[in-house]
Design brief:
Layout (H helix, E strand, L loop, with lengths): L2 E5 L3 H13 L3 E5 L2 H10 L4 E5 L7 H8 L11 E5 L4 H9 L4 E4 L4 H45 L7 H13 L6 E4 L6 H10 L8 E5 L5 H9 L16 H4 L4 E5 L6 H13 L1 E3 L6 E3 L3 E6 L3 H6 L5 H7 L2 E4 L10 H16 L5 E2 L1 H9 L5 H15 L3 E2 L1 H7 L1
Parallel strand pairs: 1-2, 1-3, 3-4, 4-5, 6-11, 6-12, 7-8, 8-11, 13-14
Antiparallel strand pairs: 9-10
Helix pairs in contact: 2-3, 8-10, 13-15, 14-16
Length: about 400
């Protein structure tokens, strides 16, 4: 139950209130003067305070004013004034100063109990609202942190002409619904390009659904993309929406599309042509509104000549081509990339900032980078873990 403070210079009133409220199951503290009441309110946490108005030294109105001051630890606690000399002006003044209620003596038992119940319910609601507000504040901060992490992850770092050209194309194409075919070697950052295209589009508040076509067995790719109905094949125990449906209204990113089976390519082509898909095992068509981005590390024209990729699908996807340069083609960006990755890794691990000597940077720029950006990040992480706070050229030779 509640913890209540009674402030009154009349012992009989204090004891009567204490007896009534303790009978209701509350814990009651007593103060025989305004000063003593304020001292107790500063030290103890109360759910409700009753105070007499007419008291020597510090009267109830002054007690109320001090309790409700911004720096008072009891400023959120409901305060009820009681008086045998009350008038309308006093009651109005008390309510203006923040009193929950004003009760005249002699005290009416029912009025006292109802006021106590209402005051405690209000305080409980206020505390719940405050707790909810704090939770929302925490969640908002967490969401903001996650957004910052995502933005950091999706940054395209570099000042080279090659990467500036990619940024320029993204800026022009992202606001449209044009399909984009992103090409480039493994580890160059094709996924980052796709995410930036989505983030800068009108679909940014809708899903970005990513599918790694190379990681899904050919016999499952159609179910993954278009979904299936219960019983359509072994282990299809319930209906399941595919990636096209999950991306409805947003963006579908088909990574490594050069590894997609010809059967799945045919269905993707139909989906692009008609904006409709059919779940595996069903004859019902489902309309989808999806922007498709695709990426590959393969030469699709060569794959077309080999009979591994449909030419009509290639032309459907290749409305806007974006080629992501290799790291060897943008070596001047290595210093910025190293600093970027070092900052991220140190923050993730909770370490202090680590720096690379100019000679160490030159040594990294002189290397070949078959793994591109992904390889560079791995090496930066290795150096940060194994080397000292200042990474030297010798560390590059020893650990990279």
């Amino acid at each position: 139950m509640a913890k209540i403070l009674i402030i009154d210079d009349e012992r009989a009133i204090r004891n009567t209130l204490k007896e009534i409220l303790e009978f209701e199951g509350h814990t009651v503290d007593l103060a025989e003067s305004g000063r003593q009441g304020l001292d107790k309110a500063k030290k103890g946490k109360y759910d409700l305070i009753y105070t007499d108005v007419k008291m020597p030294e510090i009267d109830g109105i002054e007690v109320l004013s001090q309790l409700k001051s911004p720096d008072s630890p009891a400023n959120q606690c409901p305060v009820v004034l009681i008086s045998g000399h009350g008038n309308i002006e006093t009651a109005v003044d008390a309510l203006k100063k923040g009193a929950f209620d004003f009760i005249e003596k002699p005290l009416d038992l029912n009025r006292l109990l109802v006021t106590t119940k209402n005051a405690l319910e209000l305080k409980a609601k206020d505390e719940q609202l405050q707790s909810t507000a704090e939770e929302l504040k925490t969640k908002t901060a967490e969401i903001q942190t996650l957004k910052q992490q995502v933005q950091t992850k999706n940054q395209m770092v570099g000042d080279s002409a090659a990467i500036a050209r990619v940024r320029e194309i993204i800026g022009k194409v992202a606001p449209t619904d044009a399909r984009v075919l992103i090409t480039g070697e493994n580890g160059t950052g094709k996924e980052v390009v796709a995410r930036l295209l989505h983030e800068q589009s009108a679909r940014a508040n809708k899903p970005l659904v990513e599918v790694n076509c190379a990681a899904i067995p050919s016999e499952l790719i159609e179910s993954e993309l278009f979904g299936h109905i219960k019983g359509s094949f072994t282990n299809a125990v319930k209906d399941r929406a595919g990636k096209f449906e999950q991306a409805d209204g947003g963006t579908l990113f088909l990574d490594e599309i050069g590894d997609m089976s010809l059967s799945a390519q045919t269905k993707v082509l139909r989906a692009l042509q008609e904006s409709e898909i059919t779940r595996v095992g069903s004859d019902k068509t489902i309309h989808v509104n999806v922007r498709v981005l695709a990426a590959t590390n393969k030469d699709l024209k060569a794959e077309i000549e080999k009979g591994n990729f449909r030419e009509d699908l290639y032309h459907r996807l290749n409305v806007i081509p974006i080629h992501v340069p290799t790291l060897d083609e943008r070596r001047e960006d290595i210093p910025l990339l190293v600093e970027h990755f070092a900052d991220i890794i140190c923050k993730e691990e909770g370490w202090g900032k680590k720096t690379f000597q100019p000679a160490a940077i030159k040594a990294l720029q002189a290397r070949d980078w078959p793994g591109n950006i992904r390889e560079l990040r791995n090496i930066v992480e290795r150096l940060i873990i194994l080397a000292g706070n200042e990474i030297t050229e010798q560390d590059i030779h020893d650990f990279a």
